[in-house]
Amino acid sequence: MRPELPIRAQEREIDVAIVGAGLAGAATAWAATRRGLSVAVFEQFALGHHHGSSHGSARIFRRAYEDELYVRLTGESAELWRELELDTGTTLLRRTGGVDHGAKRELELIHEHLSALRVPHEVLGAVEAGRRWPGMRFETPAVYHPEAGVIDASASVAACADASRRRGAIINESTPVTRVVPDEDGAIVVAGEQSWRASRVVIAAGPWVAQLVHGIFPFPPVTVTQEQVFHFPRRDLSVDWPTFVHRGARFVYGLPGGRDGGERDAQKVAEHGNGRVTTPSARDGAVDPVARSRLVGYVRDWLPGLVPEPFNEATCLYTTTADEDFVLDRRGAIIVCSACSGHGAKFAPWLGSRAASLAAGDGTVLERFRVDRPGLLAGK
After folding, report:
1. What's the confidence (pLDDT) of residue 1?
2. pTM above the 0.85 mark?
């Protein structure tokens, strides 16, 4: 028996409904339409909006993790980024190389995992690293790997959406989903003035996910924070820097800024996971002046090759689980693909491919990403 719903326009039928058209949702649409599935996407804002976590021209792609699982998955993701670029005729991942350093960065473990998976890399002394990248300061050895680079997040969302439309996907912009109701035949998605019947529903709604799955899918406590990023002009345009992760007194990362960095490709620099706690509806988009002051001081001390005055700044949201692993799980007709804990952008085509395989019925759930993994539902 179907659940009681308000009388609406005639129900439309679809194989897969996708709620959210950020990086994960758009990539799921791309992957699902490649499988020949009929797809409808529902985005509460305009496509490419700046209210969540999937906008901007510069996100780090890196293979260097202190966790072997993510090193492996970045390799699988890299192959899918290439497939996406070939399919859409766009360049989405710019290779720059990446360097990791700092007293609190587990460099030996990174080296061990990269070696085990045969990822090309070098271990450099601090003096040698400083010579190779003038304008950056090092006080510990550094691990460099050439496969790192910069993802254009906004262009990636647009490319996935365009390719999905080309294969017949219906993308509903400015169409909030108000209810998802599972039943024995799949699920009903209520959006706008229509009800859609879907065999499977993928909820990839970032910081909005908990409110959508409440009562139909167990979901762990997550923390939503408003993070801020800053773009600093380069002093010497002839010097090309890699992306970097520096874990010293603070956890700071940087990368070439792309369009957001202006004509001179200013460096994007930010603290990782140090924003104030908020909610999607309560975020104000205002950059914290204390955070700006900290980053200016960091640039002055560690990046003398940059002018320590940001000319551009922005905010975005992190939605983070207690263990900082992803949630990608299925219960019946409902697949949840969130939260991505502030490091999911580089995995977007992998997340989309995995969610599409779960929707198609031939995928499996990784134990690390299950919603009921030990301690997660309790927020431990």
Report:
1. 42
2. yes
